[in-house]
Structures are given as C-alpha cells and as structure tokens.
Design brief:
This protein is of the alpha+beta class. It is built from five helices and 14 strands. The protein has two domains: 203 residues, BirA Bifunctional Protein, domain 2 (2-Layer Sandwich); 46 residues, SH3 type barrels. A seven-stranded mixed beta sheet has the order 1-2-5-9-8-7-6, with helices on both faces.
Length: 264
C-alpha cells in the first residue's frame, strides 16, 4: 500500500518511491528481497516504512520488537555505483550523521540535544532514540539498504532499556514527514559529496563534520568487539576509513565494528 502523497508530501518530493506496510518482520529484509526480485522498481532513495516492525535487526544480528504505533521503521535504498569500494565503510556513518541532523531539526529551540554515537546510533539527551543498520544487497554490489528505527510515540514505560528514549518520553512530537525528508536530503548530499571526492572523506569535508556531530569523541569508552572481547580506552578520533580510534596509556587501536558504551 503506497503512502498517499498528501500524507507525506515532503518525503514524496525527495524519494521516487514511498511505500508503507501495516506491519512486517523487518523492513530491511523486505527491501533487500524486493531489490533482488525487481531492482528497477527500487531506485536511489526509494523507501519502505512501517509503524509495526515485529523483528527488527541491528548490529551483531540482534533482534527487537516495539509495540505497534510507537516507532518508525524505514529502509532506504541507496545506489553508489561510482563510490570506490574502499570508501563504502562510510555509508553507515553518513546515515547516522544524516539522521542526527534530521532529529536536530526536530528539536531546535526545545532545549534538547541530539548527537551521534559512533558508528550510527542517534542519541537524544544522551539516550538512544534511533539505531541504523546498512546492508549490501546480495548480487547487487552497488545497492545498499539502510534501515533506521526511530522511537517516536513510545511511552517511557515501553522503552526497552534505561539508556533508550523517544520523542514522546522527551515530551516532544515528531513530524515524521519532515524527519524523513530531511534525512533523505542529508543522506543524498553526503553520499554525493563523498562520491565526487573519489571516496576521500577529508576532501569531501565529511570526516570533520561527522566528528563534530559525534559525542563519542573525547569520551572514555568500552567497545564490545564482534569476537567477544572488549576494548577500553579513550575515543580520540575517527580515522580516514571511518574507524573509531581508541587509545589507552600504552596502545592505539582502530575499531571498524563493535558496540560502544560511553563511560560516565
């Protein structure tokens, strides 16, 4: 079922395909399967969304559910045929930065603050309001599906963790149409800049911009790595490949994947 243009006019002005389902297991799984089946029907910035996702997925293959109507789940196709393969690690960070800016626009003048936690979680007042997962479509190496889950109307009693929040829990109302339109525009602008710079995040001015959005930089952190080990130290920078640089008294490590906890 397509979203009526009058319901999401700002989003429809940016995206060539805006589609909604009443409920699904995973918007990312749906869109990946759709691109494999009929790629031409899912051009750059085409999206699928729902307010009832039953088996969302995150990093390290974690799954979660949210009460129907309390969160916005959206998956967007991006086409990057001219982006060098070695630069595609920046796509998840670009998505996180784009959503951070979109949420910042929602909370202007409210006294609330949105920022980025490396690599692509969005925090509102230090608590997670959005998570993002990017996946390359099998056999379609230039197509990436980026899924985002934003806690919109979730009451505080339904938040899964003390470290999570929502627009409603913060006393705010999310304009979903403007949020999605802002997110898509930022996503496209940043991907275009990186492509035009030949994949050089410094020349595209992405590295400095994303570091400025990222509240992880300068914090003491514990990083849970995919192999089950943990790394502790200070997050000192993001490197040219988009990795988080963590230092301690004796060593330096660049982390390409992992769950980060900010140590208070």
């Amino acid at each position: 079922m397509s979203i009526p243009a009058e319901g999401f006019p700002l989003t429809a002005a940016v995206s060539p395909r805006v589609q909604i389902v009443e409920s699904t297991g995973s918007t990312n799984e749906d869109v990946v399967a759709a691109v494999i089946t009929d790629s031409e029907q899912w051009p750059h910035l085409a999206l699928l969304l729902t307010h009832d996702q039953r088996a969302g997925r995150g990093r390290l293959d974690r799954t979660w559910t949210t009460p129907p109507g309390t969160a916005l789940a959206v998956s967007v196709v991006v086409r990057v045929p001219d982006l060098p393969v070695q630069a595609r690690g920046w796509i998840p960070l670009i998505a996180g930065a784009a959503m951070t800016r979109a949420i910042r626009e929602q909370v202007l003048t409210t006294g609330h603050e949105a920022d980025l936690k490396w690599p692509n979680d969005v925090l509102l007042d230090g608590a997670k309001i959005c998570g993002i997962l990017a996946e390359v479509v099998p056999d379609h190496p230039y197509a990436v599906v980026i899924g985002a889950g934003v806690n919109t109307r979730m009451p505080r009693s339904d938040l899964p963790l003390p470290t999570a929040t929502s627009f409603e829990a913060a006393g705010l109302v999310c304009d979903e149409d403007r949020l999605l339109a802002d997110y898509l525009r930022e996503l496209d602008v940043q991907l275009t800049a990186l492509t035009n710079a030949g994949g050089d995040a410094v020349a595209a001015e992405l590295l400095a911009d994303i570091e400025a959005l990222c509240s992880t930089i300068g914090r003491d952190v514990v990083v849970s790595l995919p192999d089950g080990t943990k790394l502790e130290g200070k997050a000192s920078a993001i490197d040219i490949e988009g990795r988080l640089v963590v230092t301690d008294d004796t060593s330096l490590a660049a982390v390409s994947a992992g769950d980060v906890v900010h140590v208070r």
